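Why do we care about 3D structure at all? Because function follows from shape, and shape follows, mostly, from sequence. That is the central idea of this module. The next example makes it concrete: a single protein chain, its amino acid sequence, and then its structure expressed as tokens.
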Amino acid sequence: MSTVRVRLAPSPTGPLHVGNAYIALFNLAFARKHGGEFVLRIEDTDQGRSQIEYEERLQDALRWLGLNWDEGPDIGGPCAPYRQSERLDIYRDHLGQLVDQGHAYPCFCTPERLDALRAEQARNKQKLGYDGYCRDLPATQVKEKLARGTPHVVRLKVPRQGTCTMADTLRGEISFEYHLLDDQVLLKSDGFPTYHLAVVIDDHLMGITHVIRGEEWINSAPKHLLLYQCFGWDPPSHTHLPLLLNPDGSKMSKRRNPTAVDYYRRAGYLSTALCNYLALMAYPPLGEEEKFSFAQLVEHFDLDRINLGGSIFDLEKLDWLNGRYLREDLEPTAVLDEMKQWLLNDDYLAAMIPLMQPRMETLGDFMEKCWFFFARKVECSAAELVPKKRQPEEVVQVLQTVLWSLERALPWNRDAIEAAIKEVSAFWDWPIRDVTAPLFVAIMGQRVGPPLFESIELLGIDLTRARLLDAIDALGGLSKKKAARLEKNWHGPRQ
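And the structure:
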């Protein structure tokens, strides 16, 4: 058997999701069990959303969890480069092979035509998807359009008949009818590959032997397997892990649960406890004991033991497990060390002092006035959140748009935060004080405090998001219908 090689390939479009950490954990455990190698690859082909700041945060969060890689963009390796944006020539060369062999074709359909097509399909209650309009264009017409520089994408020519069968380690054989698949875009009009093309080429060229990923990628598998077939390559083994779920069984999302690893780090959880808990999402306890180390997981690791059902992410269970680690594994001096690494360090305190010093008369005032910086959450009531002459329904919508605006604030600093909140003020035509008043309560649990924008900067986006969501819930929340309408109004003009 060749050397086991697995990978994690996150997109740097946001902080590391606990779902990605969960996938990384199982990939690393499998690699270490078999003496293999774990590769970190950055899939940054979405140039509109990818940010170097997020790439750095992703790597920092993985290191905090102890999920260290053997090859990657920061340390190099024999398969470099490990950023997809630096591998464009490789993708274009391989795509040229597909076009030359008749496995792919240029598509010149305009966004307007595609929008009209989708609208017509929706009206007729037809399956949404590309209709193959450019699939069989005469070669002379294709040549002329390319010579004129007509904007285009390149699509995969999916067979109209037949069946694709995938062997999944946990689920057995899964079959897909080709006629139900779309002619997938492989190269976008900006010259960047889509995920589907890049992932297949990279996995092959980097010698990935086992793809261990979330079950949301099952429906993409036939397109990937077809590409392997077109290139004449043997596909790697595939294992699709169960998704992390909210307690109500819905897919875990940041609207229902904190999803960023950075949140759990900032809220005071131990990395060992979080890794242990993520392992329990799909792996049975070792004997009767739910508390076990990564080394113990590796020792006993077997893909066949992964449980496909019930990956419920329950914060109360995580709290219980984290408490056990604090009480059972750490001496008081070790707890002190963890607290220093957490927030009781010179850098964090030094950033806090300028905000507190103008409000202090004695040193004892410091903790009294800055407690909310250290709290996992703050308590606030609907009455406290609603300014005079405003209604709870209005404040809910304002806080939701504040959250959306802050999520786009890059780089994360005081000026960007102020601009984001002013954007909300202008959108609703509210005085800035009416926007900041409920923010003070949501963020600090009180109506007055240190400078708001600087405080939000220090808290970070993940803890800020959690507190805004708690405040929205305290006001009764937004129905799915109202949230969708609000999101359309908010995002629409900005796209």
